[in-house]
Amino acid sequence: MLKKIAREGLNAADRLCIAADNLAGERTGLLVTVIFHSLYPDRAHLGDPALAPNQDVTVPVFRSFVAGMLDAGYSVVTPAEVDAGLDEGGRHLMITFDDGYFNNTLALDVLREFRVPATFFISTDHVHEGKAFWWDAFSRNLASQGITGAAQRREIERIKQGAPDAIESELRRRFGDRVLEPCGDLDRPFTASELRQFAASPWVHLGNHTRNHAILTRCEPHEMTRQISDCQQAMADLTGCRPIAIAYPNGNHSPATVKAATDAGLRIGFTVTPKPAQLPLAAGSERMTVGRFLFHGQRDIQRQCQMFGARAVPSHWVHRMLHSAY
User: Fold this and answer.
1) What is the third-level CATH fold of 28-132+182-309?
2) Which of 292, 224, 235, 282 is nearest to 258 (CA)?
3) Which of its termini does the chain have fewer beta carbons within 10 Å around, N or C?
4) Cα gap 121→97, rounded to integer Å
């Protein structure tokens, strides 16, 4: 009951701030970056146990998001355009997808229709090994044991504290050696040949998401460096190009993480802190810690689009305070 009251109060505060922002006038000199993970073909596929409960974004909803942001006056940009410097009088959007799900190919028709680019951050070990992402495998196996909701989220948060190899070892111990076999096209990663073909699209740009989705702030310095540099090399081998942008898994970053990324030749870094970037982006830490907003398929699309560019949104403040604990 208290959580429901708090959510309703926060939503009301958000609405008031958005209304005040509209009265204050349009913000310019802005870069808004929005993060997606999986795409479902349609509503009939929502709730498929192959995927952990996530953003519930279908292709039609993704299309509505893109249309809504374009209608709001945003231009969609690539990492190279951000690196070169954006028009400080404009409103800019980066569309990003994390992890490297094969289902991200479902975005292509929308990108072609609107002639806009998106950036896809890839964990390259998953491409090479064809293994499912551990959170999907863990979630569906917990659900098969009757563990759902808050209890499942607590289990996922607990296991997430470990290194990727330790997480995968625990899953194999608990659920068997085949636990990381994907169920099908919805939860599997790209294959190497599929990623090369995907990267050939003019609407596709690729980025670094570490070798095996390691939370970098929990890695020893040498492992942090390897996670980033190995992904850079793998991307070069797979596609012929080295990324200039990195999305930190789980958004976790530190000065050491930023240094490891810049030492590997990366020029832009993305977190999951929900805040727009005010232009111009300063060189150094500001450019390497750009915030991103999480889009939710079951929430009002227009309102979310308004919140992304607003000057002050209370629910975003709450998220920032909670995420700062990592």
Assistant:
1) TIM Barrel (3.20.20)
2) 224
3) N
4) 6
